[in-house]
Amino acid sequence: MKLYSAKQIYKADQISIKKEEITSDELMERAALQLFNWIHLRMQGAPVKIHLFCGIGNNGGDGIALARHLLDHGYNISVYVINYSEKRSKDFLINLERLKTRKCWPSFISSDDELPEIGKDDIIVDGIFGIGLNRTPDDWVAKIIQHLNKSEAFILSIDIPSGLFTDQGPENLEAIIKSNFVLSFQTPKLVFFLPQTGSFIEQWEVLDIGLDPEYLMATETDYELIGNNEALSVYKPREKYAHKGTYGHTLIIGGSYGKMGAVCLAANAALHAGSGLVTAYVPKIGYSILQTSLPEVMVLTDSNEDLLENIEFDFEPTVVGIGVGMGTNNKTVTGFTEFLNKNKKPLVLDADALNILSKNKSLLKKLPENTILTPHPKELERLIGTWKDDFEKLDKVKKFTKKFKCIVVIKGAHTIVVQIDKGYVNTTGNPGMATAGSGDVLTGIITGLRAQGYTALDAAIFGVYLHGKAGDIAVESTGYQSLVASSLIESIGSAYLDLFKIPEHPVVEESKGQ
Ligand SMILES: NC(=O)C1=CN([C@@H]2O[C@H](COP(=O)(O)OP(=O)(O)OC[C@H]3O[C@@H](n4cnc5c(N)ncnc54)[C@H](O)[C@@H]3O)[C@@H](O)[C@H]2O)[C@@H](O)CC1
Ligand SMILES: Nc1ncnc2c1ncn2[C@@H]1O[C@H](COP(=O)(O)OP(=O)(O)O)[C@@H](O)[C@H]1O
Ligand SMILES: [K+]
């Protein structure tokens, strides 16, 4: 699913109005009706107090139009206009007039006015700012936003939580609505999935207001949301006459004294992802550990007992996943450098391989094209330096992938796979996965997919999706706290099967509640 920018949404808006020969007010009415139907279906006329806070632009217009429908159906509403500008939009004014003809007079709130009392069992509709926000709200508006956030009432935001920019990082975190639910028109917004801003949204759902499908289809976006449909579209089915050689030979290189578990996890995950053969290359100390715990995995050992020093092997793997549990001892740095000098195979780099690269940036030039790097936030910072906000981080990563012709998997709650100008935002996974070794499992899955002939980009995107889905399935039986990396591996099979599940309800684009 594409994630459109504000500019693209405005364009879709104009094209739809022109093509369908409708007015912008009719489009707003469509949006308001969708909002109303969503609420009415759930509330069934319940007399709960609904406070509608509206701005003076089209987001406010949506709120005012929604207020009319709620009023017509007997809901218990209060309407407030946050009067932050004299430049009221045309459709806001049209809808304000319509509301007034029903003898409903909103309270206009300006800078020094007292704020209304809100009960914690009330509902707030947030229509203060939409995608038109172009500067941080004034302090007095930020105070209103804080007042709403503190009320403990359920906050339903129209399109986007007010105060959140659509395509740039936040400036004042105190001036953003914390939404319990966002009804977002046509497309969720990228900021719903970024670590700095995602926490302002508990749940979201898309309302289809029928913007021109032709324009939406033809428009390329900088970011895409990866759900079941996208994952299924890259999935490679197995062939009847296939043999284990068809599905590649994964080599996992890593481990050091006390950190052999990381290699076990990655190698086992590569097997469960479907790699035909898996070999682990470890220090001598790891030999019995691996042979005992993973009978399906072949083991090669380094000349060094406790760490990797001379990475040498005499077979041709399809792909190499390197770095897990490897450590950054000087001898390992030398061994790793020599390995990179010789290596021609596709690579997946994680953990200490990334840490070594960060300290020896000249090695980056030695990576084969389309190497996949899987940093967690700290590893990423070591690689690209600090960032002021998530947008700067994404820009820096894009530049990095362009410069070194690689793919970066920015791990997090919503992992984003970045290649040159494009980012793929994952939708699976849960906080139970914030546990030791879950990154090692991801490395194994991605490497195992690459072995089976997935392109580097598909392996990264699909691997991240499967990993998160395995976590979502595992957590159903373990709970968040008890989810451990091994249970992710056990659920990879179910994650594959889940790709083909027919949804019980017609598919609506929405976040999953937790
Ligand atoms: N195509 C669509 O998706 C549709 C969008 N609609 C609604 O229209 C919204 C966008 O409306 P607008 O473009 O009118 O913008 P907003 O309603 O988001 O903001 C209103 C205006 O306030 C001004 N402004 C921005 N930041 C400010 C600040 N910090 N302090 C004071 N003033 C500020 C801007 O001039 C802006 O146009 C969407 O979010 C959505 O709710 C709907 O009406 C239906 C159609
Ligand atoms: N809150 C979360 N929601 C979803 N996925 C998460 C969350 N926290 C961590 N993960 C996932 O778990 C993995 C953790 O990787 P990493 O930090 O490298 O762990 P480790 O080094 O212990 O193996 C990543 O794939 C990340 O996306
Ligand atoms: K809003």
UniProtKB/TrEMBL annotation:
Residues 227-499 form the YjeF C-terminal domain. It comes from the Bacteria. K(+) binds at residues 59, 126, 162. Its EC number is 4.2.1.136, 5.1.99.6. It holds the Pfam family Carb_kinase. One of its GO terms (molecular function) is ADP-dependent NAD(P)H-hydrate dehydratase activity. Keywords: ATP-binding, Isomerase, Kinase, Lyase, Metal-binding, Multifunctional enzyme, NAD, NADP, Nucleotide-binding, Potassium, Transferase. It catalyses: (6R)-NADHX = (6S)-NADHX; (6R)-NADPHX = (6S)-NADPHX; (6S)-NADHX + ADP = AMP + phosphate + NADH + H(+); (6S)-NADPHX + ADP = AMP + phosphate + NADPH + H(+). AMP binds at residues 411-415, 439. Signal peptide: none annotated. Gene3D superfamilies: 3.40.1190.20, YjeF N-terminal domain. (6S)-NADPHX binds at residues 58-62, 130-136, 159, 262, 325, 376, 440. Residues 9-217 form the YjeF N-terminal domain. Transmembrane segments: none annotated. Binds 1 potassium ion per subunit. Its cofactor is Mg(2+); K(+). One of its GO terms (biological process) is nicotinamide nucleotide metabolic process. Catalyzes the epimerization of the S- and R-forms of NAD(P)HX, a damaged form of NAD(P)H that is a result of enzymatic or heat-dependent hydration. This is a prerequisite for the S-specific NAD(P)H-hydrate dehydratase to allow the repair of both epimers of NAD(P)HX. Homotetramer. PANTHER family: ATP-DEPENDENT (S)-NAD(P)H-HYDRATE DEHYDRATASE, ATP-DEPENDENT (S)-NAD(P)H-HYDRATE DEHYDRATASE FAMILY MEMBER. Belongs to the NnrE/AIBP family. This is Bifunctional NAD(P)H-hydrate repair enzyme. The gene is nnrE.
